[in-house]
Each structure stands twice: as structure tokens, then as C-alpha cells.
Specification:
Layout lengths: L7 E3 L9 E3 L5 H10 L15 E4 L7 E4 L10 E3 L5 E7 L2 E10 L4 E3 L26 E6 L3 E6 L4 E6 L5 E6 L5 E3 L13 E2 L13 E2 L2 E5 L3 E4 L2 E2 L2 E11 L2 E11 L9 E4 L15 E6 L7 E5 L5 E6 L12 H4 L5 E11 L2
Parallel strand pairs: 5-7
Antiparallel strand pairs: 1-2, 3-4, 6-7, 7-8, 9-10, 11-12, 12-13, 14-15, 16-19, 17-18, 17-21, 19-20, 20-25, 21-24, 22-23, 22-25, 23-24
Length: about 350
């Protein structure tokens, strides 16, 4: 049926005045709704079930309100523990519990006790706030004095550090205190730093207990007469540096026909400059030379230098003198020199 002014819609008990509303010509919104919902027949196109009421407001208020009442077939679940911010868990078929040890205030989830996570635990930062215990299998802790604490226990190792290829890099054996670098090297990233032995006993004049360098390699010796160099047929020279102590050894075969005069013989090219101190003057290195008819000599390393000066050995009360090129001269060319020694580097 079509809408007409003064049409009444009766819902529920028609004897109750609150269940009856009269449509006025000003109820444009409701008029449109009724025209669309209801047909021209005597039977409306919809029905409201018992317990639902429709109320039309006054002419000045064009809204129409529906009030509903819901009914449950069974009693609802009961809630125990109603402290603010507690997280609710199900404890039985119709029971819930506000957990005092599990709270969330909108930004921080707080768990008092242990948390067992199955799968990955992802977080921006994990801040431990208590110490670990000896019985912990794999624990991270913190104290104000010790800072970050890692505690573990396994049948082989207590702590194992691996890289992203699952390769073991560092190990601490079960119950042990030694740290083993399983693969790779221990790299000292800052020059002048190293292994500190300050826990050991010291001599009275100790100035450092840090082993700050180790190096091994080769160098190229240069045999000179005055300022000119002998041509080398072959040479071989190696060195090892531990801290500032340098050990070297060398052997050369040089063309001794290049000079036959009073020019002093030198060996240049040591890998490190010698230490500059008065005590460092004591640097004489014995050498074996295949100098045909020449002297048996020694070589002296002056302070703050990388070259050696040749000297004859003192004989019959005579002071040592420099070895000259005429003393190592061989018209046929080849002559050889072998030497080893240790000195302090600057």
C-alpha cells in the first residue's frame, strides 16, 4: 500500500501508546522508506518480530529510531580478576581470568616469570635486566657491574659463536675458561694495540707489556761501494719482527769486478729503521764472506739507519777498519756474502 498522511504503523502490542506512531506530512525520510519497503497490497513488505519497536519522533524531529532487545540462550562466561591492564585468558568452558603476571598498558607488554616462545622472537632491542644462573642452558643477562652476560652449558662447549654460514668461529669449552678462535684470525684493529701481559711479574725497568706487532717477510739487500751499487747475480733475504725486535738473515752473490779501489763496502735495505739510543750502538753482525783473499769481516748498524757498514775484525791489537772494494774485488766477477742478526727497531 502507498503512504498517506496520518497512516499508522502498529508494532508489538497495539494497546500500548508507545508502540504506535503517526506519520505526518513532514516525515519525509520515513515516507520515502515506507514507500520503498511496502508494496501497494494490504500486506506490508516487512515485519518486525516481537520485542522490536519502531518509534516516530515529533514533526520537528524527522528521525526514526529502532530499539532492540537481545536475549542469550545460556548464561555468559564469568570473569575473575579485574585489575586494570591485565590480559584476559580462558581458564574453563565459561570462565576467564585477568592475569596479574601478564599486563599490557597500551605500549608495554609485561610478563612476570618465564616466557616460552615457539619460533623466532623478533624485536628492535632486547634489554636483559637481571643476572643469569649457573644452571641456564643458554641465557643472556645483565648486571650493573658486569654489563652483558652470556651463560650456556653444553656437552662440548658452554659458548659457541658461529657465522652466517653456520661455521664455528669461537668456542669456550664446557666448564672451561680458555677462548679458542676455531677458524680465522684474531685481528688487532688499531695500530699500537695488541696482547697485554700486564698480569705477569715485571722487571724493575719495565716500560711496556703489550705485544703490539708480529710480521714476517722478505726484503731486497743492496751491496754498495761508496754510493754505487754492485750488480747482484742473486739475493735472498728474510726477516721476522716480534714487537720491535727484528731478526734478519741474508745471502747475496754480487759482481765484485765493478770496483777495485778504497770505496767502503755497505749493505743497504734492512726492513726497519734501527732504534735511536746510545745502547743501540752495540750492533755488530758477524758475516761470512767468500771474498777471495779478502778479510773476515763484521757489519755495524748505526742508530736510526737501515744500512750496515763493513769492518774488518780486530786482529793483532789493530783497530778494525772498513772493508774496501779492493779487498772484495774479483776480476772474474762473483763474490758472496752471508749474514744474520737481530736489532731493535725504532
Amino acid at each position: 500500500m502507498a503512504y498517506t498522511s496520518g497512516f499508522s504503523v502498529t508494532v508489538g502490542n497495539p494497546t500500548k501508546a508507545s508502540d504506535v506512531g503517526v506519520l505526518s506530512t513532514n516525515d519525509d525520510f520515513l515516507k520515502t522508506a515506507i514507500d520503498k519497503i511496502m508494496s501497494d497490497s494490504a500486506t506490508p513488505g516487512f515485519a518486525l518480530v516481537d520485542g522490536v519497536t519502531a518509534t516516530t519522533q515529533s514533526a520537528a524531529n524527522n528521525s526514526t529510531k529502532l530499539a532492540t532487545t537481545a536475549y542469550a540462550d545460556a548464561a555468559g562466561a564469568s570473569l575473575t580478576g579485574t585489575t586494570n591492564n591485565t590480559v584476559v585468558t580462558v581458564t574453563a568452558a565459561n570462565a576467564m581470568q585477568g592475569e596479574a603476571n601478564l599486563t599490557f598498558d597500551g605500549s608495554t607488554l609485561t610478563v612476570t616469570g618465564a616466557a616460552d616462545v615457539s619460533g623466532d622472537f623478533t624485536a628492535g632491542t632486547v634489554n636483559a635486566d637481571s643476572d643469569t644462573a649457573a644452571s641456564d642452558n643458554a641465557a643472556m643477562g645483565y648486571t650493573a657491574a658486569e654489563g652483558l652476560i652470556l651463560t650456556g652449558q653444553g656437552s662440548t662447549n658452554d659458548v659457541t659463536i658461529k657465522n652466517d654460514a653456520d661455521g664455528t668461529v669461537l668456542e669456550i669449552a664446557t666448564g672451561g675458561t680458555d677462548v679458542e678462535v676455531t677458524s680465522g684470525n684474531l685481528i688487532i684493529g688499531t695500530s699500537g694495540k695488541g696482547i697485554d701481559f700486564s698480569a705477569t711479574a715485571d722487571a724493575g725497568g719495565m716500560t711496556s707489556e703489550v705485544l703490539d706487532d708480529y710480521e714476517e717477510g722478505t726484503f731486497t739487500p743492496i751491496v754498495k761501494y761508496s754510493t754505487s751499487s754492485y750488480a747482484l747475480n742473486w739475493e735472498e733475504a728474510e726477516y721476522v719482527k716480534v714487537g720491535n725486535l727484528v731478526y734478519f738473515q741474508l745471502g747475496v752473490d754480487f759482481d765484485a769486478s765493478a770496483s777495485n779501489d778504497s770505496s767502503v763496502v755497505y749493505v743497504y735495505g734492512l726492513p726497519y729503521t734501527s732504534y735511536n739510543s746510545t745502547a743501540s750502538h752495540v750492533r755488530y753482525f758477524a758475516a761470512w764472506e767468500y771474498f777471495s783473499g779478502g778479510p773476515v769481516g763484521t757489519f755495524y748498524l748505526n742508530v736510526n739507519n737501515t744500512y750496515l757498514t763493513s769492518y774488518t775484525q780486530k786482529q793483532d791489537g789493530n783497530a778494525p777498519a772498513n772493508i774496501e772494494s779492493s779487498q772484495v774485488y774479483r776480476a772474474s766477477g762473483g763474490n758472496q756474502l752471508f749474514m744474520a742478526g737481530t736489532y731493535m727497531a725504532a
